[in-house]
Amino acid sequence: MDGTSSSTPQTADFCLSLMQQLYKPEQNLVISPYSLVSALIMLVVGSAGNSQLQLLKTLFDKQLSAISSEASKQLVTAFTSTNRQMLEKNDKTLAIGNFLYSSVE
């Protein structure tokens, strides 16, 4: 696993593939790849087992066959650290609001 930023080829391929699947001629389509990947990273944190593995395969490495909880945390930490560094280098301000809510019924 060598990619940890939101702009790795793996995540870019995922976002482009999603756009191709959702695209309909004569209709507008707006997707924020950054927000999409950020939301999926939040799902990684709250998931476990096969669900977590599938998310990690989509975001980082299609060849993953298993991953430990610690390795998963390391990927998420590396991703967030890389994003933080990229934002700190930029003289522009990026404000995002990604939240996931859950309810127990």
Written overview of the protein:
The protein is mostly helical and 105 residues long. The chain is 57% helix and 0% strand. The protein is built from 4 helices and no strands. The longest helix is centred in the last third of the chain and has 21 residues. The N and C termini lie far apart (38 Å). The N terminus is likely disordered.
Major sheet, described briefly? none
Inertia-based shape: globular
Helix count from the secondary structure assignment: 4
What is the N-to-C succession of helices and strands? HHHH
What percent of residues are in strands? under 5%
Number of domains: 1
Structural class by SSE content: mainly alpha
DSSP strand tally: 0
Estimated helix fraction: 55-70%
Terminal residue distance: 38 Å
Mean pLDDT across the residues is 79
Contiguous uncertain segments of 5+ residues: 1-6
Specify Rg, calculated over alpha carbons: 15 Å
